[in-house]
Design goal:
The protein contains nine helices and 13 strands. It has 297 residues and is α/β, with parallel strands linked by helices. The strands form four sheets. Strands 3, 4, 5, 6, 11, 12 and 13 form a seven-stranded mixed beta sheet that branches. The chain has a two-stranded antiparallel sheet with strand order 1-2. A hairpin with a 2-residue loop joins strand 8 and strand 9. The longest helix has 25 residues, at 61-85. The radius of gyration is 27 Å and the shape is elongated.
């Protein structure tokens, strides 16, 4: 026979409340109904989960092992129910979002108006950080992360990917000349990142060699800073399409080495902690971004 959610809820409520009587009051049932549910559960599992005395109830060793599984099942059912209710509810409350400043400026800000009109009861708090943050420490509900993820304690929902290109302003090229081969970059002003160093390896093909690590003439922690420096004619950059799309369309930045550059993409993910219940607020934001972001990346 299959275990029912009613039996699992009876079991976990008795543990949480400390007695069958208190669990019955919490669940709006009779004490005899809770006792029967526990009995059926133990019969189906063919084991004793609770050691009962006239004074207290204690978990058996098997009960301790089963309790964690029971809680996970109930939490998963609750999360599934809440995700289905999102479409019929008006989610409300504070939602704190963190992402790198270039992504916030070029991608999120243009979308915020539509999101606020769709969900007016959600109170947004927008934070920008060019470094990966501790979500709990910063009281952050969702972070948008660019690049490959390493933290296994996080849930991740893929939102898309953005191509990166080697770019320079026409004013720089008029002053310094346009490099014709990747080898000529050594004689140019390359603008790179302080960290991580991997961002300073540009996917250039030279014969059988793939990838060229540049020595930055000037380094910055933010892609937006590098973009502004490139627009000012200070050098050559390697940046994502999401922050340079309009610059390329208007000719403020032009692509270099298009035939010698291997296609390079940065994954974009929304992350939140695994022990965070998927609230209606978070679910609405993730669905909204999944629908809108691809066109902006």
């Amino acid at each position: 026979m299959k275990i029912s959610t009613e039996e699992l809820q009876a079991f976990t409520s008795v543990i949480d409340c400390g007695s069958i009587t208190a669990a019955a009051e919490q669940l709006g049932q009779t004490t005899s109904g809770i006792s029967r549910a526990l009995g059926r559960l133990e019969q189906k599992l063919a084991t004793t989960l609770l050691n009962r005395t006239t004074r207290r109830i204690e978990l058996s060793e098997e009960g301790k092992l089963f309790l964690g599984h029971a809680r996970q099942i109930i939490d998963a059912i609750d999360a599934a129910e809440e995700s289905l209710l999102v479409r019929r509810q008006a989610p409300a409350g504070r939602l704190r979002l963190d992402t790198a400043s270039p992504f916030m400026l070029h991608v999120m800000v243009p979308l915020i108006g539509d999101f606020r009109r769709a969900y007016p009861a959600i109170e947004l708090e927008l934070a920008s950080s060019d470094q990966f943050i501790d979500l709990l420490e910063r009281r952050t509900d969702v972070a948008i992360r660019i690049g490959h993820l390493q933290d296994s304690t996080l849930h991740a929902r893929p939102l898309g990917q953005s191509r990166r290109r080697i770019l320079a302003a026409p004013s720089y090229l008029a002053r310094r000349g346009q490099p014709e081969t990747p080898a000529e970059l050594a004689g140019h002003s390359c603008l790179g990142f302080i960290t991580p160093g991997s961002l300073n390896t540009w996917p250039l093909r030279q014969g059988e060699t793939e990838g060229q690590t540049i020595t930055p003439a000037l380094s910055a922690s933010s892609g937006e800073t590098l973009r502004q420096l490139a627009l000012a004619g200070e050098g050559i950059v390697f940046l994502s399409d999401f922050m340079t799309r309009e610059d390329r369309a208007t000719g403020r930045l032009v692509e270099l080495f298009s035939s010698a550059t291997l296609a390079s993409f940065q994954p974009i993910n929304a992350v939140y902690y695994r022990n965070t219940a998927l609230s209606a607020r978070i679910a609405c934001l993730l669905d909204f971004l999944s629908e809108r972001l691809p066109a902006l990346l």
